[in-house]
Amino acid sequence: MWDGLCGGGSVSSGKYDTPASAARYAHDYIVDSPLVGNVLEHAGEYDAKTDPEETTSLAAHVINAMTIGVNTFVYNAVDGGRNIMDLEEDLSVLAAALVLHDTNKYVREAYGVEMDGNTSEAFDAYFENGDDFGVEAFLGDGYRDDLHYLVQRTEVNEDSRETRGTGTETEFASLARYCRIGDQVASVILRDGIERGFVELQKKLDDGEVHLLELSQVEQPILNDELLGATKEVISGEDDGEEYGVVVGSTSDRVLYLGDDVDRGVLRERVGSHLSQQLVETDRYSFSCKLNWNSFDYDILAEFALDPEKKEEIIATTFRDLLADGTAGVEGFEHIPEEFNPYFPVLAKSIYIDGQSEFDDEDVQSAYDEIYEEQGPQKAKIHFVAYLLRNFEEHREFLKEFREDVRPHLHDDLEPESDAIGSVVDRFFDATASASLGSKGEMCFLCGAAAETNYQKGLSAVYRTQEFSRRVRPHAKYKKICEVCNLEYALLADLCERSDVNLNANVGVAYYYFDEFLGDIRLRGGRVGLQQGETIDLSDTEVDKSLLRPQYYVQPFNFGGHPAMGEKNHRMVVVRQLLQAAQDAGMKVVLGRPFTRFENADEVFVDEDAIRQQELLGLDAVDRFGPLPSFIERGDDHEQSHLRRALSLCKIISMVGQNAGMRNPYLQLDRDTFHHLADFAVQNHEHATRLSELESYLETYHTKQLMDMKTVAERGVDLFGEQYDSKYKKTKIFREAIDAFLSAKNQQMSDADLLEHVAAQVYDAADREDYAGYVTVEEAEAFVDALHTYLVENDLASLKKLSDWENALVNSYLYAYEQVLYEDDDAESSDN
User: Fold this and answer.
1) What are phi and psi of 642, to 5 degrees?
2) pTM
């Protein structure tokens, strides 16, 4: 039963009488419901496609399809004169149908139910297992047949004869067109890119209504993200200007929208104004000058256009914070009157920038000279400002006249020669322009653009002021930074401060994103906190799920400096947490350095600055969210690379490391192989064979090696009996065999002589031990044959490799031997 989107409340339809405003209304409703959040929570860890070049989460694909379908429906309806208020039920049914359009894939992944297409059985399996997406809570009861009808008509090649041939119809049949548009366009974009999606959408709508805006992705990732968001908001009229249409979705350098053609020059101007308002006139970012007790610099304040009074407010706030804390012998001020704020900026200009030391007022001059004599030339600056603050009433008239004289010159300083925001907007909209590089001595050390400003950020900086750079002359003191990178630095510094990330440390940046293409829906609610673990606390860092702003989410991190572990191990711990957050949110991750251009990757996870330990364990890149489905053929040498495997491996390392009290457990495992894992676990965990996580991992990802070693262990039990007392007895016969192999290899015996020699040595060793029971030659030969086959198949039969791997092989055998013993015990218990 339909109750309506507004829950019985009244909303003025005139407020939503344009396509873009109606789309905002539809988005708000969908996001306010738990529907999208449920999709992210339950389908985020599964893959949408099987092709490795189409890697995205099932949740991301479902949301993109829903967004494209809903936005296209709203645009066509409202542009055609329909009232969005009259279409609430249709809108909700369409959103629910597109959420369910891959029901067969979801039930296969979530419940292990294999279904060939979106059959009634697939739908039944989904709803019988609890309706994870909350579709009926969102839509109400009585719509299941309608949804099934639409879902079966979503894909052109969907086998839907069971409904099409039965006469089952629905009053929502017209929505099938938008279901197909949503899924097909989303799939084409995923497979072939946004340009092909643009062509596909043109086939389904009026050519003149579909537009692809081409832009130039800038090197600065935070600014590029902000530019893209501002552009989409301007197209939608959210800057209080004329709207051009409904945004369908975007990539880092393209915007696909429905509506009217846009004048590029007008759009550029509006985006510049809107971006400036968003960056500097809201509380989303906080800009500051550079100030300490002996130096002051306008820094970023001199490089973008902003009302000088607002810049003065920023300077005053910075001084207030410094003086409230106390510095350089100046005691902290408990109270600083607001009336003094206008004087901080002019004092900064005159005393710090201009170095003024002579004043017209005799009393002020006398006070300055005394302070200079007592404190010296450096400390005199902040002590003089503190003196004027303490004696504000006495020198009020002097300060008033002083401000009138200095302020015009201050405003001249704060007027940028070239506006950073204007410069980056120009770069963003010049899609065909090639970047101009400065000479080596006048080149931005971050992006290579022409630059005049010295990079002076002090010690607490992502890159230190005098840190090496190939773009600095051999004897030059400072690197150069362009106004755009300086603005990017200010944004990153503020983001780091909000995330409690120390700039004076090794800073990395994780770029979280759902996919290269992002359907335009405003998902404002919810944060995904990173998982906690292994003594590291990242509770203040969060991954934003916003799908309108940003295109990708920039999350800074510190690597190293953790008191409980080394820098490399700490990096691996953080990587594990990033992987966990990606799985929880259904997002892909690229891990890189600050100020590096964001590049979409085919893989779910890529570390562009991976350390050697990550590469050895396969944690430098992860291909998929989960394993390939069982119906996909794969070769015997297929190496599975997906988040579930990576996180399982990390969990095993953590469990074993914690049990052994290791400080740096991630550095103790050399490779992700059966021998390395078994050896690592047996050496460091007294109950290694009882670790269900390890057993499951080895059975899933190292199946052949585990089963072959268990065959060797079974032959060992046949020969030497079941030994429960000690590791020595369990592995005695195996060690004797390895020693005999090494001896024979040293003597360069032929294969036939080698096997005969080893079998004889093994038989004699077993026959000497009373606890081994009755021993036969055939059992010894069978054991040696199984072991020799194992060594040859795993390329361990040479003298050097056998010598190098001796201890690891013994521990691998012990693991397999105990598995065989406990399996036999469990079988006997179940029989009894």
Assistant:
1) -155, 165
2) 0.83
